[in-house]
Amino acid sequence: MLDPKPPVLSLSSAELEAWLVTNDLPVYRGRQIWGWMARGAASFQAMHDLPKGLRAALERDFRITSLRPVALNQADGALTTKTLFELDGGHSVEAVVMRYTDRSTLCISSQAGCPIGCPFCATGKFPFGRNLKAHEIVEQAVDAVRVLAGEERRLSHVVFMGMGEPMANYAAVLESVRRLADPELLGISPRRIVVSTSGLIPRIEQLAGEGLPVTLAISLHAARDELRDVLVPINRKYPVRDLVGAAQGYATKTGRRVSYEWVLLAGVNDTEQDAKELGTLLRRKLAHVNLIPFNPVEDTPYRAPDRAAIRRFREMVEAEGLNVTVRDTRGREADAACGQLHERVMRSRVPVS
Fold first, then answer.
1. Does residue 1 form part of some domain?
2. Which among 77, 193, 239, 314 counts the fewest CB atoms within 10 Å?
3. Residue 2 domain-assigned?
4. Are 209 and 122 contained in the same domain?
5. Domain CATH number, residue 55
6. 141-182: per-residue pLDDT in tens?
7. High-pLDDT (> 90) share of the chain, %
8. Rounded distance between C-alpha atoms, residue 81 and residue 65, angstroms
9. Residue 298 to residues 93, 121, 302, 345, Cα–Cα distance (Å)
10. This prediction's pTM
11. Residue 119 C-alpha from the chain's centroid
12. 107 is catalytic
């Protein structure tokens, strides 16, 4: 049965202070509560330096989180963990924690499902559910903080590259970014937050004026409209050259280099033609190309190129004068591609009549 109490992170700082005043409690307790949430407190009772009466009042009026873990996969010797969370109302989303020597990164979801419909993406194979609320996005980060704290690690980076199109849930994503960066909450520098988009040009232009120096990532995958219309259908509304123009407008206004994501699909977008088109599109721009070897998805016609093909394509793109990296592919044995854990769990569930 759904707990009707609101999760505490659904409150703004002002709303939490108002609740404290209503309960005849000093407003400075709000900073303590946020501090405990920032450390990943698993319950209100774990906030041991708060008075018992305050902890009891919090238990009475709020939930610690609205997310309910329903599945967990590990890979890379437990360096990568993917959690499937059930949301209020029954939809579910994935969040992935990736541990590196010098950082810990959370790949966060902003929608239950995705309305864009890219044919190589597992997320788009299920019907779109709904936008996440800002607190549901932040709760994914708080859960990651809690997990990492038990390993004596800290969450240092957040990438909005999980389920959903972040720019299609703009208001909630923006609010969540501000809360992730809030020094009284998680205090993650906006420069360590990446917001991706498949190409919603009006929202890119809007983000440029927000005063938040986040890194913008463009899910590009093709440099000509003919191919991108197929791989990223929203390209039919926002053609690739207009998209790159908007992204470079963001780079000019913020001084932040744009990351262009390119999922490598064997024989589809890993040819010499593709490399030359990419060079023509991005040369002399404030840009970085991030090549991503395709994580195989069932019931799609696509496959990953082999290592030699990946290396050749990288060299061809570098020859065009672009900065290029190949993303470290994590978690192949753990439903690695976005949406795959959700797909496996959903298929295993018996429909309720």
1. no
2. 77
3. no
4. yes
5. 1.10.150.530
6. 999 999 999 999 999 999 999 999 999 999 999 999 999 999
7. 84
8. 20
9. 19, 10, 9, 14
10. 0.91
11. 19
12. no
Which candidate, 135, 162, 175, places its Cα nearest to that of 217? 162
Same domain, yes or no, for 101 and 127?
Answer: yes
* Distance in angstroms (rounded) separating the CA atoms of residues 167 and 110: 9
Q: Is 114 a catalytic residue?
A: no
Distance of CA 152 to the CA centre of its chain: 23
Alpha helices in the chain (DSSP H): 13-22, 29-38, 52-61, 134-149, 170-181, 201-208, 225-231, 240-254, 272-282, 307-319, 340-348
Quote the pLDDT of residue 2. 62
- Choice among 107, 114, 118, 338 that is catalytic: 338
Give the pLDDT band of residue 217 (cuts 50, 70, 90).
Answer: very high
Whether 182 contacts 159, CB under 8 Å: no
Predicted local distance difference test score (pLDDT) of residue 350: 37
Three-state SS letters, 241-275: HHHHHHHHHHHHHHCCCEEEEEEECCCCCCCHHHH
Q: What is the pLDDT of residues 259-276, one digit of tens each?
A: 999 999 999 999 999 999
Torsion sign across C-alpha atoms 15, 17, 23, 24: negative
Q: What total of structural domains would you count in the chain? A: 2
CATH number of the domain where residue 219 is located: 3.20.20.70
Q: Which of 94, 136, 139, 343 is catalytic?
A: 94
**β-pair type (157-160, 104-107):** parallel
